[in-house]
Design goal:
The chain is α/β, with parallel strands linked by helices and 188 residues long. The protein has one domain: UDP N-Acetylglucosamine Acyltransferase, domain 1 (3 Solenoid). It has a 5-stranded parallel beta sheet. A 4-stranded parallel beta sheet has the order 2-5-8-11, with no helix packed on it. A 4-stranded mixed beta sheet has the order 9-12-14-15, with helices on one face. Strand 14 and strand 15 form a beta hairpin. The longest helix has 16 residues. Bound molecules: acetyl coenzyme *A.
């Protein structure tokens, strides 16, 4: 996976950081607003002083975005620029997940860990760049989704998905001969 949170995000200046998803969500006011607030709490989260000064903003984010809108994008989440949120409803992402650049998340998507028989939890999923996640998708456990991947609506992903592929179904299977559709999302 090419995306690296430490290098990509820390190079950006303050305003670029705040607006890094703005153009990707053109015409999508809700997506723009949520992602602007998400990036702002990520900035606040970087320093203890900012957390103290802007604790009211962290509370506002929790109440408005998480409780009211039903979109859980934790401030500690690693998410690359160009993130798109369509129909922001019932979207839950574990803070341990890693999302690459130019990814799309839709309504009722869950990305999180899996509880094992011994009561411990697995690591969270890692999504590469240009991953288009359909509606009602669950991606759970210590899985890696490659670059340029489409995950079909309603899929349950519990195993790695290779680069340049489309995965559908429960459990998700990779479709053969479907690279044409994948190249479409590279041009989004
Ligand atoms: C309010 C809104 O509009 S929200 C938007 C919601 N829309 C989405 O989330 C879009 C997600 N996109 C999809 O699910 C699409 O079906 C894609 C991208 C996965 C595949 O699209 P296409 O490349 O056109 O695939 P195509 O329709 O030719 O189907 C290929 C095969 O995959 C199967 N398939 C396609 N989508 C799915 C799916 N979501 N779940 C299970 N199987 C699927 C088909 O049955 C077919 O199987 P077969 O070859 O055994 O007959």
């Amino acid at each position: 996976m090419k995306f690296n949170s430490k290098t990509t995000q820390h190079k950006m200046n303050f305003f670029a950081y705040l607006f890094q998803d703005w153009s990707a969500n053109q015409g999508n006011i809700k997506g723009r607003l949520v992602l602007f607030l998400f990036r702002s709490v990520q900035i606040v989260n970087r320093h203890m002083l900012l957390k103290i000064l802007f604790c009211w903003h962290l509370v506002f984010y929790r109440l408005f975005v998480e409780w009211n809108l039903g979109i859980e994008l934790p401030r500690k989440l690693t998410a690359g620029k160009g993130l798109i949120i369509y129909h922001g409803q019932a979207l839950v992402v574990n803070q341990g997940a890693i999302i690459g650049e130019n990814c799309v998340l839709r309504n009722s998507v869950t990305i999180g860990h899996k509880k094992l028989a011994d009561g411990t939890f697995t690591k969270c999923p890692r999504l590469g760049n240009n991953v288009d996640v359909g509606a009602n998708v669950c991606i759970i456990g210590d899985v890696t989704i490659g670059n340029n991947v489409i995950i079909g609506a309603g899929a349950v992903v519990i195993k790695d998905i290779p680069d340049n592929s489309i995965a559908v179904g429960n459990p998700a299977r990779v479709l053969d001969n479907k690279t044409e559709a994948v190249t479409r999302i590279e041009n989004i």
